[in-house]
Each structure stands twice: as structure tokens, then as C-alpha cells.
Here is the input.
Amino acid sequence: GWWKHGRLIGLVFLVALGVVRAIDPGFVEAARLWAFDRYQNIQPRSDPARPVTIVDIDDESLQAIGQWPWPRHLLARMVTNLTQKGAVVIGFDMVFPEADRLSPNSLADNVVGLSPELVEEIRQLPSNDEFFAEALRNSRTVLGQSAFTRIVAEAAERLPEKSPRAFRGPKPQQFLPRFVSVVRNNPVIEPAALGHGMFTVEPGSGGIVRRVPAVIRVANQDPEEDDIVYPALTVEMLRVAASPDGRDAYIINSGETGINDVRVRMGRQQFVINTMEDGRIWVNFSPHDREGRYVSAKDVIDNTVPTERIQGKFILVGTSATGLLDIRATPIDSALPGVEVHANILETILGKSQLDRPPDVLGQEVTFAILVGVLMIVLLPNIGAAWSLGLGVVLIGGLVGLSWFSYAGLDWWFINLGGRTLVDVTYPAFSTFALYSILTYTSYSETAAEKKQVRGAFGRYLSPALVEQLADDPDRLVLGGEMRNMTLLFCDIRGFTTISETFKANPQGLTQLINKFLTPMTNLILDRRGTIDKYMGDCI
Here is the structure.
């Protein structure tokens, strides 16, 4: 019947595979992410325009200027020099939560032996934080902030002000990752900046950074109010760059199942940042390029950096110095300065080369796996394992090609795959291979059992060739037999009674005599594909 050859087992196994994908256990996600990592290794993003420059607090800068943190009047000089050289916007991948310990008033409190008059005179001097704040007010700057899922002392009591934003669709808070406290900048510096963005980056599977929140929510101190939504550092830099006075809003588009995208309008151009349902964005990494992307902080402070490295660029201030512990693992680099993660995000958005994994892609992947599975369940018992293997290879190969072309953002013949979409090849490929293996094994087991039964029933009576024919095609065993023109042979030993009487004293010798006759006769018959009905004494 139709349910023979393991089709029922195949259907049960296919349903089980669907349940596993719906649960999405760790090993399934790990395989999917491994494939996406391989794509980025094979073809990392290329962006020769380099719209982002990283001002790096590197080991050379520490050696030239001194240990970190530096006096903030030096940071004020850095910001002023960057603005004068034409920086579009300056973002800090760091936070300044405390007052500068190197300010004059701190020195007055910590240096002994000063006269009261001198102490009072020093205290009247402006603090380094005031110098820094003045430089921030005269520049287009975004200060970094860090969110935590745990309570950080005093941080939860003083949440930052909200950046201008607008919501389209359902409230996004229900979909966003929730944090409970924020480490923000000190109150002298914070109001001076045009924007404030979160640089929170949480590694994924294997400690690798692949996705970064575009927006997050932080628990509101008032339980009656909605949680507060904050933008990522990169989104806030785009908003500030697009807004002359820093008051224009970014827009969060939400649907019934989650966040669709985040939008920033810059003049006549609108940047659409595709996100996952929880507001995270896939980072499309390019190879580490220290010469083309980085300038040393000491060169900016000394004002010796070439103007073309700054003019018209988005500036990120971060660190790669040993010991400052801002190193991240990415799909294409095991040790990348954290600030370069944000640079890759900005370059991806500005270059419109963002990776995307729309919500409906999962449904398409599962549908493909089910259709291929049903096709194999129907065809494999009929067309055999070899043809089914060929079919499976073609289908899996087609999926791999489609997934790759979709990632690469290419057009395939007349099909425009539209953008750089991440299509998982591992689950459909594995399910196809696993189902092929199950169906092949089940079919082999059933066939082997039938052959064993046929050989056991007919092996002693039919020629080996005929037994193998019946074993290969058991359907030839039809009740009632078939009509044939046949030759019948009855053969015995002439005078056997007389001969047997001579062996009265040696019955074993008579047995040996009969075997010497019946064995070669049996072989002759079977060699000629004859069928032995029975033996009767000396008769065959």
C-alpha cells in the first residue's frame, strides 16, 4: 500500500523536524549563525568611501599623553580641532560619569601645603568638565551611555532624558530588550551635547558580536508610566547629523509581531534601518583596516591629522589600547576594537548595504523544507535511492545558491532578490538530508527483510539465480502461480533395491552412495535454473 516503504515514518519524522525548528534549540541556532558567519568570511563588506573615521585612544597616544583618563581639557581640544576640520558629527564610545579628578578644584583638595589664599584661588578656576562642556556646545556631538540589566548603584535613580522620537504602529516597548539602569554622563557635561546614545553591545552565541540593538528600553522609575526608549549611539549620531538644532526625531516603525525598522530623515534622503523583531540590527562587517579607518588621538589633539581624514566624516572616539578592555570577537575577526563595531554599523547604514532577515523568511524556509520533505516521501520509494539522492542534491544545491545570491544582494536571471537578505540554508538542508537518510534506511530494511524471507523459503529448492530474481522482485510470487511450458525430470538409480541389499552391514556406505548421486544431480539442475520439488529415496 501507499504507507509501505516507511512513508508513515517519514511523515512523523518531518513533523518532528518542524517542531524542532519551532522550538529553535541552541544547536539549531548555532548552525544557522555558523552559516551566516561563513558568508561574511567569504564576502565581507567592501566600502572604499570610508564615511566614518575612528579617533583612536591607542597605545601610542597613552605613551605620548599619559595614562587614561586624560584631563578633559585635552578632550575639549580634541573636539574643537575635529569640528574646525569639518567633522559631520562626533560620537563618544565611552561615558564620563564622574567629575574630572584632574580639575583644579580637585587638586586644591588633594595637594597639601598650599596656603589658604592659593587654595581658594585655585578653586575659583573653571573645572576641566566646564572646558569640555563648552567644546561640546560648540560642536555637533553625541555622548555615549551604557545600559545594564542589573541595578547599578545610583544609575537607576537618574535616567537620561529621552531623545526626540516618534512611534508608528503599536508601542515598541513590548518588543524591545529591557534594561533596568543606565550609566550616564555627569551633569556638567551631559546637557552640552546635542544627543545621547547607548553603546551597549552584548555578544551572542560563541561570544561573537553579530547583532546590536538599534533601540532599547529602560525601566521607568514610575511603574504607572511606559518604559523609556533610547536610541543606539549610531542611530543618535544619524539623527543629530540630520537635525540642525538636534530636535528632529527618529521614527520607530512597529507591527503586530515586532519592530519593522527605524528611520532617520536627512534632508531629502531617508535612512531605513531594518531591524529584527526585538529592535536589533545585523552588523555587516568589513575587514579591519587600521590605515584607512583610524587616526591616533594624539595627532588630533596636536592638530597634525590630515584634514581629509576628518572633513565630511562621521567621527567615533574610542579605544584600542591594551588594558582598556574594549575588544570584541566578530564573524571575521577574533579581536576587534569595540568602537569599530559601531563604525561598521554606521558605514552599513550610510552605504545602504545593511544585512536583513525579514520575519517572513523563517516561514519561507520552513515551507521549503516541508515541500521538499513531502516530495521525497512520495517519490523516494518509487524512483529509488540513487535518483532521490540526485534530487536531494539538486534541491539543496539550489537552496545554497539562492541563499548565497540573496546574501550577496545579486540579481539571479530575471529574479531580483532585493537587498542583502539572510536566508538560512542549514535547517532545510539538514532536514532534507536527514529525511533522505531515514527513508533510504527504512526502504533498505524492508527490502532486506523481504529478501531474507524469500531466500529462507525457496533457497533449498530453487536455483540461486531464480532465488535472487524472486528476492529482487517479490511481487513475482503470485498466488496460483503462472502458466509455463516446462520440462519435468524424474530420475532414480536403476536396480537400487538390489544395490541397497549389499549394504546391509554398512548403512552409512549406502548414504554416501546416494549423496554421490544426488549431490551432482542437484547441482546440474540448479545450474540450469531448475526447481527441485522433492527427494524420494534415490529419486529426484
User: Anything to note?
Assistant: The chain is about 40% helix and 15% strand. Confidence is low (pLDDT under 50) at residues 411-418.
